[in-house]
Design a protein that fits this description.
The complex is a heterodimer of chains A (about 120) and B (about 110). Chain A is mainly beta and about 120 residues long. Chain A is built from no helices and 11 strands. Classes of the chains: A mainly beta (about 120), B mainly beta (about 110). At the A-B interface, strand 4, strand 5 and strand 9 of A face strand 4, strand 5, strand 9 and strand 10 of B.
């Protein structure tokens, strides 16, 4: 079964509204969560890395005030797209290491993604 | 910045043909993962390579990591329509602060 639960799986919202995407780790603690965005026919681009109890690290070119990340507990990380616009329409997916931060020694777990459409 | 470059960007092959996808970094890779995906859907984990020179196979898919741990290849033998999708390599790249990046992706179409 899924080890990372991501909700919602799809959402349609009006321009100017905010949308929150949640990723929950099931049966394990996720100290680190990676957030990715994917446009059609493109790869997954890392947006930011959230760490429980500290500020998220954003990749260059990603507006931290627009894409708010909160990692308040060891099992929940959220991405809020604020004042969404049509160009924010995309596929968003979260991922975290299964055991600790050294993911290259353990498998990564992915949420099933959220398809966001902003009208 | 794109830490991992994949080639080719897209590939169209006849069913039954072999194909190879490459993933290259200018820096050392700490663990190289291969995934398959369709846009808007989750990722399917294929293989993980950790050691220089490592090679793994599963069914008709073989992945290799070079000795320098800067390049990996994914080879599909006797391709089938079920192999169609987007293939992504992913890795933690040296000097990037423990972030996990994906390659540029390769879109594979298999013609029956």
């Amino acid at each position: 079964g899924a080890v990372v639960s991501q909700h919602p799986s799809w959402v349609i919202c009006k321009s100017g509204t905010s949308v929150k995407i949640e990723c929950r780790s099931l049966d394990f603690q996720a100290t680190t969560m990676f957030w990715y965005r994917q446009f059609p026919k493109q790869s997954l681009m890392l947006m930011a890395t959230s760490n429980e109890g500290s500020k998220a690290t954003y990749e260059q070119g990603v507006e931290k005030d627009k894409f708010l990340i909160n990692h308040a507990s060891l099992t929940l990380s959220t991405l809020t797209v604020t004042s969404a616009h049509p160009e924010d329409s995309s596929f968003y997916i979260c991922s975290c290491p299964g055991q600790g931060p050294h993911f290259y020694n353990s498998p990564l777990h992915f949420g099933n993604g959220t398809r966001l459409t902003v009208t | 910045s794109q830490e991992l470059e994949q080639s080719p960007q897209s590939l169209i092959v006849q069913e039954g043909k072999n194909l190879t996808i490459n993933c290259t970094s200018s820096k050392t890779l700490y663990g190289l993962y291969w995934y398959k995906q369709k846009y808007g859907e989750g990722l399917i984990f294929l293989m993980m390579l950790q050691k220089g020179g490592e090679e793994k196979s599963h069914e008709k898919i073989t992945a290799k990591l070079d000795e320098k741990k800067q390049q990996s290849s994914l080879h599909i033998t006797a391709s089938q329509p079920s192999h169609a999708g987007i293939y992504l390599c992913g890795a933690d790249v040296e000097d990037t602060g423990n972030q996990f990046y994906f390659g540029t992706g390769t879109s594979l179409t298999v013609i029956p």
